[in-house]
Amino acid sequence: MWDRDCGFITANIAISLSSCWVAGIRLLNRATSTERSDCGSSGWSLTNMRLKNYREDLLERLKDADYAAEYLAQVLAENDKAAFLMALKDVVEATGGMSAMAKRVGLKRPSLYKVFSKRGNPTLDTLQAILEALGLRVTIATAKTA
Questions:
Q1: Burial class (CB within 10 angstroms; exposed 0-12, middle 13-18, buried 19+) of 8
Q2: Percent of the chain scored above 70 by pLDDT?
Q3: What's the pTM value of the predicted model, to 2 decimals?
Q4: Whose CA is closest to 139, among 125, 126, 128, 123?
Q5: Is residue 17 part of a domain?
Q6: Which residues span the domain enclosing 6?
Q7: Which helix (H) or strand (E) is 125 found in, with range?
Q8: Does a structural domain hold residue 37?
Q9: How much is the average pLDDT of 90-112?
Q10: d(CA 25, CA 60)
């Protein structure tokens, strides 16, 4: 098997590097051991490693108003309205959820969900009310500093 695969690699170098790559991967797959390994003597393994939940970590960080302000500013700089609404929704969820925010801004919860939907188009008044309830505000800066 090895001779045939190696011959295939050398014969096809001039034709296509992708053929080399595919043959090389096949060769590596055959050479890979099926035995279980402990990844060295340290006893480290993926099952022992605690993976951090990204969403939980983000929501915890967004409880800090300064972090939330920078998060929203960075997303807003991308000029993607849908992404900004998702980011704002993340901040709302981190600071008590939709029900609490609806009470703070004087909207019904379904209306607030509509604001944050894919087709949501909040008015400036609604956006300012939400940001104010979060302890944030809209500011204007020159394009040079933004």
A1: middle
A2: 63
A3: 0.62
A4: 128
A5: yes
A6: 2-31
A7: helix 124-133
A8: no
A9: 95
A10: 42
Residue 11 and residue 66 in one domain: no
pLDDT value at position 46? 53
| Co-location of 23 and 58 in the same domain | no
Nearest to 139, CA basis, from 59, 67, 61, 72: 72
Number of structural domains the chain divides into: 2
| DSSP codes of every residue in 48-74 | TSPPPPHHHHHHHHTTSHHHHHHHHHH
- Looking at residue 102, its pLDDT comes to 95
Give the C-alpha separation, 117 to 122, whole Å.
10
Query: In degrees, to the nearest 5, what angle opens at C-alpha 60 toward C-alphas 127 and 83?
Result: 40
Could you read off the pLDDT of 43-59 as tens digits, one per residue?
555 555 555 688 899 99
Residues 17, 80 share a domain: no
Do residue 128 and residue 63 come from a single domain? yes
Chain centroid to Cα 32, Å, comes to: 33
The residue written with tokens 């972090």 in the block is: 67
Rounded to an integer, the average pLDDT of 60-87 is 94
> 58 and 108: one domain?
yes
